[in-house]
Amino acid sequence: MRDPEEEQYAHHHRTRLPGRGMNSPLQEEYQEDRDVYSQQSQDAFEGKEEMASHMQMYAVLGVGKEATGEEIKKAYKSLVATLHPDKMHHQDDEEVRQAAKEHFIRIQEAYDILSNPETRDVYDVYGLEGVRSGLELSVFDGSSMTEEKKRRWEFYQSQKKKMVEEAMSSQQKGVYIFKTDASSLFTPYAPANIVSRVPQVTHVYISSGMDIPIGSSEDSSLSDSDQDSLHLGGMVTVRDGIGGGSFVAGYHRFYSNGAQGGIEGSVGLQTLLGFQASIPMYSDQDCTIFASGGCSWSPDSGVAFDVGTTCQLGPQTSGEFTWTLFPQELSSMAISIRHKIDSTLFVAKAEVGAITGLTIRLIHQLTNSLSGRLSLKAGTQGVECEVGGNRRLSQTSSTGMSVITGLQGVLLRLRFQKGGHNFEFPFILSTILDPWIIVCAHVVPPLTVTLFSQFLMSPIYKRYRSKRAHQEEAMRIKHMEVDKKEAITAQNIIKPVAIRKMEKAMKDDSLVILKALYGDSSLVSEMQVEVMDSILRSGAFEIQDTLSVIDVTVSVQYMCDSGRVIFHSGYPKANLFGFYDPVPTVPKMLFVLFKYQGQNMKACLEDREGGILPTKGVPLEIDA
Fold it and tell me: Quick one: 514 exposed, middle or buried, by C-beta within 10 A (0-12, 13-18, 19+)?
């Protein structure tokens, strides 16, 4: 039986030039399996929460998105009068002084962004990352349409995220193939004393390497400067007990504009020295074109030269063209296109030359973690059809299984991927097209996997998820304790000012906050009657630490200005000074019991609801 995969990988490594990394046909297939999933399913699978809106800086200052420059300046001066480090000289507690300093830094950053009309516009469209990245409002084409800018920014972010993921996974990459001939198990015609019934490993192929950043920052993947890296790796291949290996080393440079170049060499079974470069030719919000070229030299094949181009037409469509010019025995030309429609990824590739053929693949997303694959291939290596599927186990790992039927026989292909490492275990089931073996190959492995998963792995996975849930809950509680401590410290900082405001309000018969509670909506609603009865009759009400509700009376009184408290819509109240989120996964409510001009009143606001006290208040039937 011919081994088309071995020829494919051999051709890949004979023509691979520096700068192209370790990407092989197998790794490209794994990337296709990942790309087929929609961004929504990726977020759902990875357990991501909805990104916070571009309102955090407004919450820091306690103003609304439509606030004028004067309102922003007034809010800033009010906060600085309390939280400036120079105002903390009377504090003996070093922890309180440090907390005040950290809050002041955030307030200063928020004011610097929102007080400048240009940076405020950038922040409203691109968020804090856009401001810190130095983007301008007309970074793309100067369009004045905010929605269009947001769409382009989201596309820019998705492309950047993809580049970061590729950069992180390219730190260490490897391909590991262990091919086994198990056809003797399914060949009833050969006598057992002539043909061994034990499956034999006939071919082992290992290619692994790593990229080591040189003189880069801690977060080199996000840096806007040029990056250098050293590549070290190796390749080993063994077939029927005969084989050898090569050591690979190289130097690559990645430029901030997307261009890259490098030199690389290998010594051993495959001796090669080469250079490759890639430069961006054209780029706008909808299209990016790269051109690449390189040359290499080896004692066996002499000089090789190839050119290529890659075109990214938006997030759904891309194309690639490569042309190996010489030597003649390796001369080839290939063109491929990838297009995604909803949950289906279509890939077509045509090759002419050393390997001639046409490949068409369809990968369809079935669920958030499961995809199906159909591949048809015809060429000088024969005709074959592949049917299979892939399941994601985590954000960085997946497993797959497929059956390849062709003129060479029937092959069962098992795959596993972790990070940048790809493992493949092909099993030759038959060297002839036996209908019974073909049916069994398509039915028995999936059925076995289903039963194995249902009755063995599912209980184990449930226990693992339960344990993981307990760990996450413990981590959440730990983070909440930190947030709670910070909120209490913040309230202690502003408490003297809040008390002075309350005393003045009582003297002027203005707005006095009697009690303010924030937390679980249902629990806050249940507590209202008890709180009002206790406050109005005894003047006190204490909250248990175990409840999913926090006391924010000091913070709300501190927010009082000229007899009013303004809550702005658009951001959760957990972002307000002295607040924190006691129950991140449930709806929240703010309940305020206050007195205004001798009248006891109450107000209830949803988490992102805006309102003004005392206007929002409802008079109580019973007065103190």
Answer: buried
How sure is the predictor about 164, in pLDDT bands with cuts at 50, 70 and 90?
A: low
d(CA 261, CA 252): 6
Of the candidates 567, 579, 564, which has an alpha carbon nearest to the alpha carbon of residue 513?
A: 564
Contact between residue 580 and residue 543 where contact means Cβ atoms under 8 Å apart: no
Q: Higher pLDDT residue, 168 or 380?
A: 380
Residue at 133: amino acid letter: S
Contact between 430 and 186 under an 8 Å Cβ cutoff? The reply is yes
φ/ψ of 65, rounded to 5, equals -65, -25
Which residues neighbour 258 within 8 Å (Cβ) at sequence distance 6 or greater? 279, 280, 283, 290
Distance CA 325, CA 604 (A): 74
Q: How confident is the model at residue 359 (pLDDT cuts 50, 70, 90)?
A: very high
Where helices occur in 170-273 by DSSP H, the ranges are none
> Which residues fall within 8 angstroms of residue 69, CB to CB, at 6 or more apart?
115, 117
Question: 241: Cβ–Cβ under 8 A, 6 or more apart, which residues?
Answer: none
Do the Cβ atoms of 348 and 360 come closer than 8 Å? yes
Q: What is the mean pLDDT of the chain?
A: 79
Query: Which of 593, 463, 621 shows the shortest CA–CA distance to 528?
Result: 593
Q: Which positions ≥6 away from 441 have C-beta within 8 Å?
A: 403, 405, 410, 412, 429
Q: What is the pLDDT of residues 369-420, one digit of tens each?
A: 888 999 999 988 888 999 998 888 877 788 899 999 988 889 999 999 887 8
**210 neighbors 461 (Cβ within 8 angstroms):** no
pLDDT of residue 517: 92
Q: Residue 563, SS3? A: coil
What confidence score (pLDDT) does residue 26 get? 56
∠ CA 437-443-445, rounded to 5°: 95
Other residues' Cβ atoms within 10 Å of the Cβ of residue 539: 10
Choose among 423, 427, 294, 407: nearest CA to 357. 407
Q: Are 204 and 236 in contact (CB under 8 A)?
A: yes
Nearest residue to 277 via CA among 584, 19, 566: 19
Whether the CB-CB separation of 278 and 261 falls below 8 Å is answered with yes
Phi (first) and psi of residue 566, to 5 degrees: -105, 125
Bridge partners of residue 211, in order along the sequence: 231
The number of helices, as runs of H, and strands, as runs of E, in the chain is 12, 24
Spatial separation of the C-alpha atoms in residues 173 and 184, rounded to whole Å: 34
What's the rounded Cα separation, in Å, for the pair 85 and 104? 8
Q: Is the dihedral of CA 615, 617, 618, 624 positive or negative?
A: negative
**Terminal CA-to-CA distance of the chain, rounded, Å?**
94
Question: Hey, CA dihedral for 569, 572, 573, 577, is it positive or negative?
Answer: negative
Residues in the chain: 624
3-state secondary structure of 170: coil
pTM of the model: 0.60
> CA-CA distance, 101 to 138, in Å (whole number)?
35
**Strand-pair partners of 427:** 180, 412
The H or E element spanning position 174 is strand 172-181
